[in-house]
Design a protein that fits this description.
Elements: H1 5-13, H2 31-34, E1 56-59, H3 61-67, H4 72-76, E2 118-122, E3 125-126, E4 150-156, H5 161-164, E5 171-177, E6 183-193, E7 201-212, E8 215-226, E9 229-230, H6 235-238, E10 255-256, E11 277-278, E12 284-285, E13 295-297, E14 300-313, E15 316-333, E16 348-350, E17 370-373, E18 379-386, E19 393-412, E20 415-434, H7 439-446, E21 458-460, E22 465-467, H8 485-492, E23 499-520, E24 523-542, E25 564-582, E26 587-598, E27 602-613, E28 619-630, H9 634-638, E29 639-649, H10 654-660, E30 667-675, E31 683-697, E32 700-716, H11 719-726, E33 733-735, E34 745-747, H12 769-780, E35 793-796, E36 798-817, E37 822-838, E38 845-847, E39 857-866, E40 870-879, E41 882-883, H13 891-900, E42 910-911, E43 914-924, E44 928-935, E45 963-971
Parallel strand pairs: 2-5, 30-35, 33-34
Antiparallel strand pairs: 1-4, 2-3, 4-5, 6-7, 6-45, 7-8, 8-14, 9-13, 10-18, 11-12, 14-15, 15-19, 16-18, 17-18, 19-20, 20-23, 21-22, 23-24, 24-25, 25-26, 25-29, 26-27, 27-28, 28-31, 29-30, 31-32, 32-36, 36-37, 37-38, 37-39, 39-40, 40-43, 41-42, 43-44, 44-45
Length: about 950
């Protein structure tokens, strides 16, 4: 019998953590607890218990302890609302040159809606975003928030701009800090992989709390160190999952580029370190597979200190908390491809290199010997080759994050008030330490034009001679023997260390007052009112050698290294009101609204309406509707020029497919330059949820919630749309580089030598692009029969995206109480009913739920035995199957999958579902706790995903296998 996906999801999700502290055995509140003023994430009304009336997920201190997690990234992988899709990311997805997931950083995103759509708070207040954006989306780097300082985490996965303002489109993650700690406590953790002793994780924490100056001071320190994990350390990732998943660009042993070979076929280097690969064109080449330089996890170190001080000053309470974190990491990317000076494929080398090569490899009779220009200004004759550098691109990144909040609070005539100031700052420094080479110096080296001081030689045309202003002229670098001592010494002079410096600062003041407003039909109406002023500043400044510049034909000085130059600031103020209106003994209405005004794009008003109905004490029926918005990120508004890649969708427009994709409906990627847009509008969202919570006994809790989001005006570039517009708009078509100040598509400069039947070139009004393509094919006989795009298409960020998402969250928790202890059972999960989003770079809408990297169902189940002095149990994590990304593969890869029998009759396949089991146990001595966690107890391999060059989906699975963590906590 095949179960319906919704039934499967319902069975998976029923859980304990939606209801606050549901894992803990409910107890009757003490007198002190009964009068304690509380505030729950999602409301500004203090002193009123709103728990259960909204779908709030709480990760309690007990949950954190049982998880065995050593940092927030590990902990949030257990939360279903942050799983599925590619919104949440960590250092496992980032490489040295990644701008979509910045190196050394991590973000938590709700509902897969993107990191900038989730508002991150600490104690209900904001924290400075990372200055290094995810793409162009600003986000909070959760690596800078020490887990040791966290008491609990509250997650409201629905629109919350009516309460918190911008960015709470998908919801809010609120980290609540520990306070009022007394005594002295030391903790240590050690984690290790079963595979290798070189993959350890170590953590140390110290806590100290004491009375001081009439108040309470709590101080903490935290240190975390994680070693790197290389892909070659795992059997599943050490070798490529497909032999056809190769690059033509080997390292150490260049191939001869097909355009220089008379036969038209690439010639493989016989000194290849691996067996030759037969290409789809029948060539035998030396290939490169990226897994040999891939890191599954990069090294990460962080050190944090902080304090919380609380003091009663008569009727006024003063609280100040401070956190400082220094995080450092190293990230790696595959060795950079070597291109021509103008970034075309196939760099040229002087024909004299032939004298150093075996005639069994290549002879002059095999080649076209063509002229090429050198950096010094000479014209030489030679041939082109295919290669990449030997060293992985490596960067080191250090981030220093600081947050200081000082608050006064009190009570006036039965109204609670609080007002505070926030200062938060994140500074990041990045430097490339290996594998980055200057394109001009490299080409000077292979032309014998590099001086011993690292400068390019001067060329005297009259005497046809080279000279160095200082130092001596070096010999010619031979790219076919890169690792000899002489060649290595020359290449080292071409190495560069581009840097990137970022600063993000947030200054804020807020004030809130809440209490009982008036009586209505015998019921007291509670309200909250408040205001906020915030100043944000961001700068992301790369070194000059990492920037694309118009005065340098948009060529970045170094190979394989792009950057984003961005500077922006804004000032915002907001005012809000919230009302809790009891309509009867069983029905209460919650109304909220907030107005925000920005000095750059304008203003936004966002309301929220929700109700909670309690027909009986054990049941709460709840529903809410709200709007939310995300202000254009400072990076999106202030980016001056960003070097990146953009996809266009051939499947969205058959004319585009015929012109640029040989008729195929695939996604194509190109190097582009993105420009910021000061006229961007805010992204807007409308969300709705309805559900119930049921607690038939004090040991049983059940919740089910339906939710939906309609998210419009997402900021992105739309290359498919620009290509479509360029079919009739000649101003968007450019032979060669796009002129400064203009935008559009860049075509191969040689394409302007070809015309349609009326004599129009690609740049002329009324040009028939199909006829120009036919002429190109007739005279050039190209390897690919499509209009040749050049590089650096210039695209403007715009409000071009949309996504509509709906799903179900549900949970159940039940405790069986015995004389010796209690058995706790829970399940929880999320089912995505629909996830519609426009195809990247296109107006066409696609359904993502159940497709690559978007599982329809995620969930976990727990079984724990708990006694006074020990606990033990297992957690089962489940990720459902989804379609593999077969459409995104090359034709040769699809052919191999067909030969392997991996595709069905529709040439599709599914990535298998994945279930893993974690074991956790702990024992409490008088002054010491000892805990053990075993991740992936059954050592389940990650399912194969051919759509990833890694062979697995790093957003939803991991290949680490069984890992162990031991934790010790001692109280003095």
């Amino acid at each position: 019998m095949k179960l319906h996906p919704i039934a499967i999801a319902c069975g998976l999700y029923l859980s304990h953590s939606i209801v606050v502290n549901a894992q803990e055995e409910p107890t009757e509140p003490s007198e002190q607890e009964a009068v304690e003023v509380i505030q729950v994430t999602g409301s500004n009304i203090r002193g009123v218990d709103l728990e259960g009336s909204q779908p709030l997920t709480v990760i309690s201190a007990q949950d954190i302890e049982r998880s065995g997690a050593l940092n927030l990234t590990e902990l949030l992988r257990t939360v279903n609302q942050t799983r599925g899709g590619t919104g949440t990311f960590n250092t496992a997805q980032s490489g040295a040159t990644s701008t979509s997931t910045p190196a050394g950083q991590a973000a938590a995103a709700l509902r897969g809606m993107g990191p900038s759509s989730t508002l991150t708070l600490i104690n209900g207040r904001r924290i400075a975003a990372s200055s290094f954006a995810s793409g162009t989306e600003n986000f909070v780097d959760i690596n800078s928030i020490p887990l040791a300082a966290i008491e609990r985490i509250e997650i409201l996965a629905t629109g919350a701009s009516a309460i918190y303002g911008a960015d709470a489109v998908a919801g809010v993650i609120n980290y609540i800090l520990k306070d009022d700690f007394e005594g002295f406590e030391l903790s240590a953790q050690y984690g290790q992989s079963e595979v290798s002793a070189d993959e350890s994780e170590i953590g140390f924490q110290a806590f100290y709390g004491t009375a001081l100056g009439g108040g309470n001071l709590s101080v903490f320190a935290d240190y975390f160190d994680r070693k790197a994990v290389k892909a070659t350390s795992r059997n599943s990732t050490a070798t490529p999952v497909l032999t056809s998943n190769y690059s033509y660009l080997p390292k150490n042993t260049p191939n001869i580029y097909f355009n220089s070979v008379r036969s038209g076929n690439e010639i493989g280097n016989p000194d290849c370190a691996t067996p030759f690969v037969t290409t789809e064109f029948g060539e035998e080449i030396c290939a490169y597979y990226s897994n040999e330089d891939d890191y599954l996890e990069t090294p990460l170190q962080s050190a944090s200190i902080g304090f919380n001080y609380a003091l009663a000053l008569g009727d006024i309470d003063w609280t100040t908390n401070f956190i400082y974190t220094d995080t450092s990491s190293t990230s790696f990317s595959t060795p950079a491809p070597i291109n021509q000076v103008d970034d075309r494929e196939g760099p040229f080398v002087d024909e004299s290199v032939l004298d150093t090569l075996s005639p069994d490899f290549i002879t002059v009779d095999d080649l076209f010997i063509d002229p090429f220009d050198t950096p010094a200004g000479r014209e030489l004759f030679g041939f082109s080759f295919d290669a990449r550098f030997s060293d992985p691109r490596t960067i080191e990144i250090d981030t220093k994050a600081m947050r200081l909040v000082s608050e006064l609070s009190g009570n006036f005539d039965n109204w609670d008030w609080r007002s505070g100031i926030t200062l938060s700052r994140s500074d990041s420094e990045q430097v490339a330490t290996q594998g980055i080479y200057n394109r001009f110096k490299y080409h000077a080296a292979i032309a014998g034009e590099l001086c011993s001081n690292g400068n390019i030689a001067n060329y005297d045309e009259d005497t046809d001679s080279l000279s160095c202003s200082s130092g001596s002229l070096l010999g010619m670098y031979n790219p076919f023997f890169p690792n000899t001592s002489d060649n290595r010494a020359i290449l080292d002079l071409a190495q560069e260390r581009p840097t990137r410096d970022g600063e993000s600062t947030l200054y804020g003041w807020d004030a809130t007052i809440s209490g009982e407003l008036f009586e209505l039909n015998g019921y007291l109406v509670s309200a909250a009112f408040g205001a906020e002023i915030r100043r944000e500043e961001i700068s992301d400044i790369p070194s000059l050698n990492a920037r694309a510049r118009a005065d340098n034909d948009y060529l970045v000085d170094v190979f394989g290294f792009g950057s984003s130059l961005s500077q922006a600031d804004r000032t915002q103020w907001g005012a809000f009101a919230e009302f809790l209106v009891p309509l009867s003994d069983t029905l209460e209405l919650n109304l909220a609204g907030r107005f925000d005004d920005y000095n750059d794009f304008g203003s936004s008003f966002n309301p929220k309406v929700s109700f909670a109905y309690r027909p009986i004490e054990s049941v709460v029926l709840r529903a809410s509707w709200s709007t939310a918005f995300r202000a254009p990120s400072l990076t999106q508004a202030g980016v001056q020029l960003r070097t990146t890649t953009a996809d266009f969708d051939c499947g969205a427009n058959q004319t585009i497919a015929n012109l640029y994709c040989e008729g195929a409906g695939s996604l194509r990627g190109n190097n582009v330059l993105e420009l910021g847009n000061p006229n961007l509008l805010p992204e807007e969202s409308e969300s709705f949820s309805v559900g119930f919570a049921y607690s038939p006994t004090k040991n049983t809790d059940l919740t089910i919630d339906y939710w939906s989001f309609d998210h419009q005006d997402l900021v992105d570039t739309n290359m498919t749309g620009v290509l479509a517009a360029a079919l009739t708009d000649a101003s968007l078509r450019h032979c060669g580089l796009v002129p400064e100040g203009e935008r559009g598509i860049s075509y191969d400069p040689f394409l302007c030598d070809y015309t349609d039947a009326a004599g129009n070139t690609i740049e002329d009004d009324g040009a028939n692009l199909s006829q120009i393509l036919d002429e190109w094919i007739t005279f050039e006989n190209p390897r690919f029969e499509e209009l040749p795009l050049f590089r650096d298409h210039v695209l403007l960020l715009d409000n071009t995206g949309t996504q509509e998402i709906s799903g179900l969250d549900f949970s159940v928790f039940h405790a069986l109480v015995f004389d010796q202890g209690q058995l706790e059972l829970s399940l929880r999960g999320t089912h995505y009913i629909s996830f519609e989003r426009n195809i990247p770079g296109s107006d066409a809408i696609e359904e993502l739920a159940g497709t690559y990297q978007y599982p329809e169902n995620v969930g976990n189940a727990e079984i724990f035995w708990v006694q006074d002095d020990w606990f033990a149990g297992i957690t089962i994590f489940y990720t459902s199957s989804y379609e593999d990304d077969v459409q995104g593969l090359r034709g040769r890869e699809i052919d191999e999958l067909l030969d392997l029998g991996q595709l069905d009759e529709n040439e599709m396949r599914d990535v298998a579902s994945w279930t893993t089991v974690d074991f956790s146990a702990g024992y409490y001595f008088d002054k010491m706790d000892v805990r053990l966690r075993i991740e992936n107890l059954l050592d389940e391999d990650a399912p194969v995903a051919y759509g990833s060059s890694r062979g697995y989906d790093s957003f939803n699975h991991d290949p680490f296998g069984r890992r162990f963590t031991v934790s010790v906590n001692y109280r003095f």
